[in-house]
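Researcher: Quick one. two chains, 936 residues in total.
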Amino acid sequence: MSRPALAALALIGSALASAPGLAQDHSGPGHDHGAKVPPREAAPPAPAQPQVDDGEDTAPQSGGNEISPGPTMETPPPPEAGSGPPRAADAIWGADVMAAERHREHAAHGDFPVLWVQADRLEAQVRDGADGYLWDLQVYYGGPTSRFWFKSEGEGAFGEKIEQAEVQVLWSGAVAPYWDLQLGLRQDIAGPDTTHAVIGVQGLAPYMFEVDAALFISHRGDVTARVEAEIDQRITQRLILQPRVEAGFSLQDIPQLGIGAGLDKVELGLRLRYEITREFAPYIGVEQSWRVGGSADYARAAGEKTRATSFVAGLRFWF
Amino acid sequence: MSEPINLSRRGLIRGLGTGAALAAAPAWARGANLSEQATGLIRAGFDEVRGPVIDLSVGAGMRMVQGRRGRGVAVNGSVPGPLVRLREGQNIRLNVTNHLDEDTSIHWHGLLLPFQFDGVPGVSFPGIKPHQTFTYEFPVRQSGTYWYHSHSGLQEQSGHYGPLIIDPVAGEPVRTDRDYILLLSEFTPLHPKFIMQRLRTGEHYFNRQLPSWTDKYPMIGEERRMWAQMRMSPTDIADVSAPTYTYLANGRGPKEGMEYLFTPGEKVRLRLINGGAMTYFNVRIPGLAMTVIAADGQNVRPVEVDELQIAVGETYDVVVEPRGEEAYAIVCESMDRSGMALAMLASRPGARAPVPALREPPLLTMADMGMNHGPSDGCQAGTDHGGMDHGGMDHSAMGHAGMDHGAGKAGTGDGGQAAPKGASGHSMKGMPMRDISLLPPDVAIGPGLDMVSMAPVDKLGDPGLGLRDVKHRVLNYRMLSALEPNADTREPSRLLEIHLTGNMERYMWSFDGRMFDAVSDVPIRFAWKERVRVKLVNNTMMAHPIHLHGMFFELVNGQPPAHQPRKNIVTVQPGASATFDLTANEPGDWAFHCHLLYHMHGGMMQIVTVMGPGDKP
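Model:
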């Protein structure tokens, strides 16, 4: 993980979050009443409209019943409570007809699948040099803890061949309340034909950072990694500022891809979107990218720039 | 202008005749009835059906509320469905015909009946297939205000619900001049499956009151960072709210003129029913006190309040005596204050009272994570019951939680108000909000559990989110006391502790960490006539209205056992506990679930099995 980059973003995030703070506290459970009032066992018979004071008690009539402490330790049910699945309806409506209905109904309460499609970034990039485009799509289908994912990212310059593009097919399983472990394959569909095994984690980090980190092992044995993090800063209910950081790493030099060992590249982006609906939000923004270390050397050797500033305009949508 | 049916004797004689299976409908309903045929529109409001045999038909159509259209499911062509009017002691046969292209069902909420007629597909019966008729048949063994609704799919959200009143044989304990039903619910043009999908995929999709740089929430930056650090939002009050929802009074939006007539000086009974899918309502009538006389259909000792929070599925009967003003507004704000349902008490048709603006939205506090200290009412509950199980435990648990503001402050008794301020002003660093060591071993630990309440205390004395610091009198469960003594006042023979668990981000909801699909074959079991104390512990930051089918339980609310109020729904406040006593005297399999529709479908449901007297274990 790119700790400095993430930390920087965290700093930005928390500074932003504190901006509109007000010193007043509106919250609080409030309705707490001072000292405890024991039930008035000897209270006179309740009038037709008993007093309503603080809700602690409404002069319960004793009726000869003392309030008991009741059982304090949880104990299992007695053997007379029976065992086995609940099948009382089988005896009345028939086991076959109930079995079919039971299966259908039970599956609808809890672990049922949903489909989610998102284009997080679908944008044009204007920069010094060749203007370009970029897509970043994610799709999942499945239940809340086990899903199939499809991801695709790519970019290029207008009028030229696609510079970089990939698709990933992953299985994703929940390993913590906010984290999924993702396993699968990545296929690069532009540049040198490369297939990677993918091991990743995706989820929501403290302070509401959406994080996607993955390790890639190519069929040639090269090991690379990528970390992406973004956070939504709500300015109004519809206007949202999204700082974003992405960093690439490599365990070794990969000359044919122009990647040097160590930190490979860093991108910092800031996108301002307006949610016309929750699902449909055009945005504008700016992105700064750097090639770093050995990768920068490869870039210079190829006559490419090692840094680029892009102004972006695009669309974020999902359904 | 819509005048609802007056249920009082006078109203009945005047308006409804006797015994007809389809009693005379008020003028507005008849007027709308004709156009319904032409346009396929579902009517708003309801008629009344009664007698020994009642036919109900479930059909689909379009609903129109304040100019918004949406697909609806209706009983007898109206939303709400017709008032089912029964008499204690009668036998009833209800023929329910399904005109939908999907299965349906009707669950008689709060009724004591043989479990096979309870109406939960897959639990009590196989459901009602398309274009088939199912007959429910049972003796009516109780009286009071109840309701009915679908237990199939998400039809309840679409309008498949209606009121059900049972007149007592012995006469009402409180005489009133007028008797009205106020059934609260929601309308949305969205398909409920869409809502469920969005709740699973898009965090806070329906919330338009999220914290932002420009909000007016009274939170300092440190508090905001603390919430972000916990990956939680203090505005998670209602999962679905306005503007997605238009809140309804008897099927009408706030601008559609729902009106109840009165003559000054009369006693008016309002039967409040929360038939919503997801909305807690805060009900008040500015200028009028409400005397609560029944809860969940069961008479309670009259208690006078100025406001009450009604959980999804609950019913409250209140008596008001309007005089002095020509009209009074019945204001029913959603708990998150994103909108309101509205009706008028009017001394003449068209009379209107000013409607107060929505109050500021409430925020969750650290106390809603179960971080309680100071002399909260919960601690008192424990002490009242002779140390039910907390009392002295809370502070040590907090010490374990490692909060910065030491235990010294907690014990000083500086008032409930001071405590949350102290909490919110301190750093939450190092505070484990998911300390699984606090959970009993029967709770499954997994990704479906995002929080563990640190020191859950009994909060039956909590009037509800947003009503804790209002200046007037607000109902809470400790104020309820059963009017007629309970039949069984035995000391419970065992304690059953059930943890309410969830993951807001994944929208998973469960009991003891297991969603219904995982425990549908593992019921909660009771022996015949076993008396059990059930303690519900809420490890989430949302209030859950927990509903048990087929039986009443008695809230352990500080009243003597004979007068613990009988209910079938209890709200467990965020981070808190609630306890009830149950006599398992209705054999069969019964649904037990959170009555928030999407929480139930998100997994917060289980089956309760009660062994019958002749059943062999």
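Chain B touches chain A through 145 residues (CB under 8 Å).
Researcher: Thanks, that's what I needed.
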